[in-house]
């Protein structure tokens, strides 16, 4: 294994007391001295700053970029209005998910953000298209929480005018940045793409706001889990289909009816007949968290699925999980058992999310 | 009274053939905010290295192991109701068990404070 890479904010994380860990080949803060739960709650109540520079940022240029992307993804980009972003995923020929990503129409090009662990795969995948694919050397920070609008628009007034899933160029402290109103916490907020050489000064400038505190990967994971958002490699992967994962909202009608994407045989068949298993929220009835890999059993005692993400929700104030169960057990309110350390513990299927999303639509 | 330590980051405060057991400050800090504790019941007996409890934090689950053959005299039920005590006072109020040591000769296998300090440095 090669040395883990450092983002341009590495020294700032260390200065702020971040506990640095190797995540997907990057040294990232799992938490700061405040701790995971405090950082999580601060994000829900005020705002948190996350370094997500380990994610891949890519520019796509060329004729018919939107049409060509549609040959890799089951979402529609024709049209995707200028200044709008869309959540989508690359599907494989078997109908599984190769990665999930954000695609934005930036006017003269498309701007794409992919997961850190999948960036090489995704860039190679897009290079199979007849377009120019350029990986950007830019940093990416997320400012998330109910105070995010006040914090970011204090420097870049246009931030207040953006709605959820809209993107625009802006100026912060004399530096041109791209601000997109989206995120991975369930809260209102922004992701801001910044030239690497300017990200430290901009992060420091934003952190001067009394309502903004840094938060690490630990809080990012508990926030997204409460919000019912999938983590690639845990909740979705090359074996799980978008239909099983309840992501068909990201497949616009034209694509659901017309097909024309990798894996359409399985995906269209599951859309028509229903999938054999579904991703659901699973709430343990006791206090014991059910983590990834825990088996889910029916009340009758048969194994019906397993947990793909699980832990403790600081805002939910209890253990929370997501996992796949056989479709006949997927209805909200169904009682199941979780096999934790050999013991069956009662749990209930719930409709995601655990904590309501708070987007500015 | 002598306090011994284990490589599993437990402390055991011995008085004759009875003792109090918990996890070290180092372990509590490494775990982060503890959100769940599961204990075994008084009266149960265990061999060395048997699992005697579970501590879960916002980050991870961690098992507690018997440092020697023992019988539980009392479990600290307050921890199950208020797991955060483990972070507040791991080597004091947040003890896990009062126990009876089956064979005090097994204490020889445990670490003294200097050996434990060397382990975590």
Put the structure in a nutshell.
With 361 residues, chain A is α+β, with helices and mostly antiparallel strands. Helices cover 21% and strands 34% of the residues of chain A. Chain A is globular, with a radius of gyration of 20 Å.
Task: Describe the sheet with the most strands of chain A.
Answer: 6 strands, mixed
Tell me the β content of chain A: 25-35%
Tally the structural domains of chain B: 1
Unreliable residue runs of chain B: none
CATH class of chain B: Mainly Beta
Tell me the series of helices and strands of chain A, N- to C-terminal: EHEEHEEHEEEHEEHHEEEHEHHHEEEEEE
What would the average pLDDT of chain A be, to the nearest integer? 97
Under the CATH scheme, the architecture of chain B is Beta Barrel
* Low-confidence residue ranges of chain A: none
- In what order do the strands lie side by side in the largest sheet of chain B? 1-2-3-9-8-5
Separate helix tally of chain B: 4
Helical content class of chain B: 10-25%
Give the tally of structural domains of chain A: 3
Give the termini distance of chain A in whole angstroms.
43 Å
Rg of chain A, please? Answer: 20 Å
Question: In the CATH hierarchy, what is the architecture of the largest domain in chain A at level 2?
Answer: 2-Layer Sandwich
Strand order of the largest sheet of chain A: 11-12-13-10-4-14
């Amino acid at each position: 294994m090669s040395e883990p890479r450092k983002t341009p904010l590495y020294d700032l994380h260390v200065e702020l007391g971040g506990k640095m860990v190797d995540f997907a080949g990057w040294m990232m803060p799992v938490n700061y001295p405040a701790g995971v739960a405090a950082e999580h709650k601060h994000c829900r109540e005020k705002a948190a700053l996350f370094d997500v520079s380990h994610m891949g940022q890519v520019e796509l240029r060329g004729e018919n970029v939107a049409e060509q992307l549609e040959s890799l993804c089951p979402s529609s980009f024709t049209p995707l209005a200028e200044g709008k972003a869309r959540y989508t995923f690359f599907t494989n020929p078997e109908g599984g998910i190769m990665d999930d990503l954000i695609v934005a129409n930036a006017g003269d090009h498309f701007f794409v953000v992919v997961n850190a662990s999948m960036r090489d795969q995704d860039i190679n995948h897009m290079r199979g298209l007849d377009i120019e694919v350029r990986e950007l050397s830019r940093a990416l920070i997320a400012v998330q929480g109910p105070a995010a609008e006040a914090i970011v628009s204090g420097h870049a007034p246009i931030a207040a005018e953006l709605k959820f899933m809209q993107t625009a160029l802006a100026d912060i402290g004399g530096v041109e940045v791209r601000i997109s109103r989206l995120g991975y916490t369930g809260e209102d907020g922004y992701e801001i793409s910044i030239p690497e050489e300017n990200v430290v000064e901009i992060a420091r400038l934003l952190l001067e706001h009394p309502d903004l505190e840094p938060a690490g990967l630990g809080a990012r994971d508990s926030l997204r889990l409460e919000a019912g958002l999938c983590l690639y490699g845990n909740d979705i992967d090359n074996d799980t289909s978008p239909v099983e994962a309840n992501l068909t909202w990201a497949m616009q009608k034209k694509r659901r009816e017309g097909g024309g994407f990798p894996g359409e045989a399985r995906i269209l068949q599951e859309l028509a007949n229903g999938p054999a298993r579904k991703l659901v929220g699973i709430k343990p009835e006791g206090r014991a968290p059910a983590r990834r890999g825990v088996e889910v059993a029916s009340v009758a005692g048969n194994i019906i699925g397993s947990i793909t993400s699980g832990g403790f929700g600081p805002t939910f104030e209890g253990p929370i999980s997501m996992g796949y169960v056989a479709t006949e057990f997927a209805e909200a309110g169904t009682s199941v058992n979780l096999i934790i350390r050999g013991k069956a513990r009662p749990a209930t299927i719930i409709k995601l999310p655990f904590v309501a999303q708070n987007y500015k639509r | 009274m002598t306090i011994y330590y284990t490589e599993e980051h437990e402390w055991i405060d011995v008085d004759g053939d009875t003792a109090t057991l918990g996890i070290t400050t180092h372990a509590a800090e490494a775990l982060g905010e503890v959100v769940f504790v599961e204990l075994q019941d008084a009266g149960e007996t265990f061999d060395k290295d048997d699992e005697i409890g579970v501590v879960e934090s916002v980050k991870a689950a961690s098992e507690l192991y018997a440092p020697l053959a023992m019988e539980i005299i009392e479990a600290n039920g307050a921890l199950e109701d208020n797991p955060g005590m483990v972070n507040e006072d791991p080597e004091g109020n947040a003890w896990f068990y009062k126990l009876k040591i089956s064979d005090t000769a097994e204490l020889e296998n445990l670490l003294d404070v200097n050996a434990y300090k060397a382990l975590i440095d």
